[in-house]
Amino acid sequence: MTKSPHALSLPAPSEKQTYVTISALEAGHLTLPEHLFVTNAAPEKRTTVPSLAFLIRHPSPSKILPSQSTNLIFDLGLKRDFTKYRTAQQHHASQRQPTITSLDAAASLRAGGVDPEKDVDTVILSHVHWDHVGTPSDFPNSNFVVGSGTLHLLANGAGPLYPAELFNADELPFDRTYELPSSNSSDAGKAAKQQTAHKWEPLADFPAVVDYFGDGSVYVVDSPGHLIGHVNLLARISPTKWVYLGGDCCHDVRILTGESDVAMYDDGRGGLRSVHLDTDAAKETISRIGGLLKRGEVVTDGGGEVDVEVVVAHDKGWSEGNKGRFLPGHL
Fold first, then answer.
1. What kind of fold does domain 8-325 have according to CATH?
2. What's in the keyword line of the UniProt record (predicted)?
């Protein structure tokens, strides 16, 4: 096909291209008042949505058990035990009731034949809000990977709307947690502990991605706006199919398609805010991701058309319509 001048261009598969397998995981549910997240929502409407996690299987040998493939988890959803949240986190969670914590991520893995204590090499968190951090202690042999600035955020918060009380400095096992380097060269070296083997490069319409395995199968995408350190994943599952895991880039797919917009509401300080730390940056990220949804306009750099499936963390419609793609099924 002829490449459109406006098409997004993803890398063509190499001669011995590696592909990954992705399975969705149940990782708890919470209830969102829609008017805080999306425009044109009825003030009284509340919807119980999933907080999705994902198992990504890469065919390279696991560092934990070399006889099996590498298992990577993206996001962990809710904690099953709310007493493990700090008081301010519990107060915030009380405004998102009802919540469901069974199954959580660890239980979903076990039900699908994966042992979280022995079979998971790495957990990548899209960000560290309470409904994505899950229970890290369920993964005692896993490394944790977070976006740049996350460790400082956990200890210090991010200003008056995101005080330190909403985070837990001890949330992650520090000796097994690595920050990706800053995608801003002026910030290089500031993180307490960085995954220095990884380097940000542009890809398609995204200014900064990391080729996580170095083989073009999984890219960590710097996705600023929602929270400090927010990252997404772009993964190749076949010669013509990619999956984009969008975390909390937005909370309603109508925002990605342009049917609705990010809601703004009173910040209690005489101004307006959204659910994003930096609304303008979040909208830029949303616009870039939205470009992946334009069928026929995403191609490889060799000219072949590809399909990109975008899944955001709280997409109730996707979750209900894709039960066969949860572990032990796959996308």
1. Metallo-beta-lactamase; Chain A (3.60.15)
2. Hydrolase, Metal-binding, Zinc
